[in-house]
Amino acid sequence: MGVFDGWKVTSPYGSRSDPFTGSRVFHTGIDLVKYHRYPIPAFVGGVVLFAGDGGPGTGFGGYGNVVALRDEKGYVHCYCHLDSVVVQKGQKLSTGDIVGYQGTTGRSTGSHLHYEVRSKDAPSYGYGLHVNPGEYLESLENEEDDEMLKERVTELESQVAALKGECQTLLNTAEAHIQEINTLKAQLADQTTPDWFSAEFGADALKGVVDTPQGPNLFWRLAAVAFRLRKKG
């Protein structure tokens, strides 16, 4: 029962021998021990429904001083046999807030905390509608873990979407540059040899020459100068 690590479990949830009569009865909660007057923390947050002596007809008969709070799912968490209570009805508590101090009030054989979880808050604060406290707290922890995982997944999906957007922008830029380069290549490839040059030097004289890195413009200037010099000479 990992949720109760650090506590001594003196009586688990389920069937047991009644400490007063010895007969088999169902224990509706779990008995936990630290030390007498240990400050008892709320295992979950919620709103205090009951705080005080659990007398007959309250749904807490025999439990002595009790704090009962309702969590966000509507379950009632009962902290029983407290030496004293430090919260009030209607008060909102967070996980870890102190509800009272470990004691032995009510029908008790020694100082301990009887912790009980009930699935409803009415009638009589859900008396008789108990569930396994350990399993219920574990289910809450699992839900919290699931929510954390969902938040992390959402965060990662957002980061991936942002990266995809950046990659698409880079890809579009690269494609634009490639198109520009292809256009320049086409322009270079479309440089036909003038008739006067072909007549003078032959139609194949420029193969492997015009497509130099300097491009055709500089070549044609030099070729024209050379041709004119040759004509004059």
UniProtKB/TrEMBL annotation:
A Gene Ontology molecular function term of the record: metalloendopeptidase activity
All residue ranges annotated as the M23ase beta-sheet core domain in the record:
26-122
Coiled-coil stretches? 146-191
Q: Which InterPro entries does the annotation name?
A: Cell_wall_metabolism_enzyme (IPR050570), Dup_hybrid_motif (IPR011055), M23ase_b-sheet_dom (IPR016047)
Q: Where is the signal peptide?
A: none
Keywords (alphabetical) are:
Coiled coil
State the PANTHER family in the record: MUREIN HYDROLASE ACTIVATOR ENVC, PEPTIDASE-RELATED
Q: What is this protein called?
A: M23ase beta-sheet core domain-containing protein
Q: What is the lineage of its organism?
A: Bacteria, Bacillati, Bacillota, Bacilli, Bacillales
